[in-house]
Design a protein that fits this description.
The complex is a heterodimer. Chain A is built from 4 helices and 6 strands, in the order αββαααββββ. By secondary structure, chain A is of the alpha+beta class. In chain A, strands 1-4-5-6 form a 4-stranded antiparallel β-sheet, with no helix packed on it. A two-stranded antiparallel ribbon of chain A has the order 2-3. Chain A starts with a helix and ends in a 9-residue tail after the last strand. By secondary structure, chain B is of the alpha+beta class. Helices cover about 30% and strands about 15% of the residues of chain B. Chain B has 5 helices and 4 strands. A 4-stranded mixed β-sheet of chain B has the order 1-2-4-3. In chain B, α2 crosses α3. The longest helix of chain B is centred in the N-terminal third of the chain and has 15 residues. Chain B is rod-shaped and about 105 Å long. Classes of the chains: A alpha+beta, B alpha+beta. Chains A and B meet through β6 of A and α1 of B.
């Protein structure tokens, strides 16, 4: 699971949950991989408008890969290639293979297996 | 998003781009509001009409899916579902729940008259300006009436095309001479006088 996916996922399908975002990532360090993905500045710049940057920073920090990433969005991010490259690295190149996503409101843990989060609910959660 | 881990494994094998999620869409779309600008689904929607578990209620599941999807789409975003309904009541159920959830749009059918090539698309728009439904493919040759041609074929028209050479005309004389020659009879040789127009008193 890439952090770009994590930035969009919530647990709001569980009965009783209002926001369910952001989900806390719990993953052993050896199950977090770095992959090579081609940098596309236009894509990264466009995605910046959809991201919750604070959640992205917190997630990267939890996984221990936040070096170099500024805590707040740089004002001229659309043209600042250096900043976009750092965002690209955190967004697209970090992959969590095994671990859990924890709902901030109910504490319910969604397992991640083979890089795919399992969001299937039990009968009483629907 | 897929409910089957095996299908997701196939996606991994084929190295598909994009994030994968193991989830049941009938339970809802677990995304932040306004995330998506476009949604595509192929051959999935019809499964929501089945009740695979005892506590499943297809109408409720369809509504939960469409309502949460609507929330996770940005304003003016579009969703297209190519699906295979078993019958028209399934189409009605699906369309009704999608409209209840706030979507506008409708059905588009490609090749409606071919059993093999026919494809049904549910096109949904979330807010924004009122959008035009795309036209279905494969409907250009169909008219509302049976085809007919405008001109009437009269007897005279027919005859001018297919008429045999008029009797006693030069053409007829020449043809007759050919015929008799073939039959082996004795025929006068052709000359500049053969079938010549005479003065009317003849």
């Amino acid at each position: 699971m890439k952090l770009i996916t994590h930035n969009m996922l919530t647990s709001n399908i569980i009965k009783g949950v209002t926001k369910g975002f952001p989900l806390k990532i719990v993953a052993p360090t050896d199950k977090v991989q770095i992959v090579e993905v081609d940098f596309n500045p236009e894509f990264t710049s466009r995605m910046m408008h959809k991201l919750d940057y604070d959640a992205l920073y917190t997630a990267a920090e939890t996984l221990g890969h936040s070096e170099g990433l500024p805590k707040e969005v740089v004002p001229d991010f659309e043209t600042n290639e250096e900043f976009l490259k750092k965002v690209h690295h955190v967004l697209m190149q970090i992959e969590v293979q095994e671990g859990e996503l924890v709902c901030p409101e109910t504490g319910r843990a969604f397992p991640i297996h083979n890089g795919i989060p399992n969001m299937l609910l039990k009968e009483d959660e629907v | 998003m897929d409910i089957s881990p095996h299908m997701l494994d196939v996606a991994i094998e084929r190295e598909t781009e994009g994030g994968l999620l193991l989830s049941d869409v009938g339970e809802g779309c677990p995304f932040r509001p306004g995330t998506f600008d476009g949604v595509i689904s192929i051959s999935a929607l019809q499964w929501l009409c089945n009740a695979d578990k005892k506590y499943h209620n297809p109408a409720k599941r369809l509504y939960k899916f469409f309502a949460t999807l609507y929330a996770s789409m940005s304003r003016g975003a579009r969703a297209v579902f190519q699906f295979y309904p078993e019958n028209s009541s399934q189409v009605e159920l699906i369309t009704a729940q999608s409209m209840r959830a706030g979507f506008s749009g409708g059905l588009v059918v490609d090749f409606p008259n071919s059993t093999k090539a026919k494809k049904i698309f549910l096109c949904l728009f979330s807010g924004g300006t009122s959008q035009q439904l795309p036209k279905g493919v494969g409907t250009e040759n169909r008219q509302k009436q049976i085809q007919y041609s405008d001109s009437r074929r009269t007897e005279r028209n027919k005859q001018t095309k297919q008429r045999k050479p008029l009797k006693k005309s030069k053409e007829w004389i020449v043809d007759k001479k050919e015929r008799r020659k073939r039959q082996g009879r004795e025929v006068r040789p052709d000359s500049k006088y053969t079938g010549r127009k005479r003065k009317t008193k003849f």
